[in-house]
Design goal:
Length: 242
């Protein structure tokens, strides 16, 4: 009897054990599934962040470059305003100014060449170099105008003869020029400064006659001569007083 009961009970126990095992397996699977789904994945998180494309990252630089280019273009266009054109024909006053100022400047250059040879005064030497550096290019500029206008370059005497009644104020005589050439050191300095002050004052008078010229080139040069030579007169007067 006991044997029969035990035989019958064994299948039932086996079934209960199998069911318990199945239940445990299912529970573990669910736990693993939940755990797996709850665990954050670092790879998708990194890849999900939007990355700027090359075009997007270069857009601000491109925009800045365009702004700078536009600004520089505007500046360039502003600085390239058209310059006023000279009149078709030069005025008699412009011609006389150039024909007479050229030999006037040439004499100042000769006087300054004497300074470079006859004195050791550093301030006088510097002044002579300054006068040469300013007036030689102006001689060349006025010579080019006369060539453009088809009128001749003249010597001092010829220019005064061609423009009767209009002398070249401030020009020194040949005798004074010889005296300057023969002087040295302090004696030379006194003569050079005194003669050059008169020479500059004459050039200023001549320039004032065309400072309102209709030719903007002539007017600009006249204004430059007046400004520069007034400043040099002040400098030379100071040197004489020292």
């Amino acid at each position: 009897m006991n044997v029969v009961l035990r035989a019958r009970a064994l299948p039932a126990v086996a079934l209960l054990a199998a069911g318990a095992l199945a239940a445990c397996g299912s529970s573990n699977s669910m736990d693993m599934s939940v755990s797996s789904s709850a665990a954050p994945s670092s790879a998708p998180a990194e890849s999900s962040a939007p990355q700027p494309s090359d075009q997007e990252s270069s857009a601000p630089e491109s925009s800045a470059a365009e702004s700078e280019s536009s600004a520089s273009g505007s500046s360039a266009s502003g600085s390239s305003a058209p310059q006023p054109m000279p009149p078709a024909e030069p005025s008699p006053a412009d011609i006389m100014f150039a024909q007479m100022m050229i030999p006037h400047h040439e004499q100042a250059v000769v006087m300054s060449d004497y300074a470079l040879e006859n004195t050791s005064n550093p301030e006088v030497l510097a002044l002579a170099e300054q006068i040469k550096a300013a007036q030689q290019p102006e001689i060349e500029q006025m010579t080019s105008w006369l060539e453009e206008w088809g009128v001749p370059v003249m010597s001092g005497m010829d220019a005064m003869g061609a423009h009767a009644g209009h002398g070249m104020s401030g020009m020194i005589t040949d005798e004074q020029l010889d005296e300057l050439a023969g002087a040295t050191d302090a004696d030379f300095d006194v003569l050079y400064l005194a003669y050059m002050i008169d020479h500059h004052e004459g050039a200023i008078d001549m320039a004032q006659s065309v400072v309102d010229s209709q030719d903007p080139r002539v007017a600009a040069l006249a204004a430059a001569i007046i400004e520069a030579q007034r400043a040099e007169i002040v400098q030379m007067q100071r040197l004489i007083e020292e």
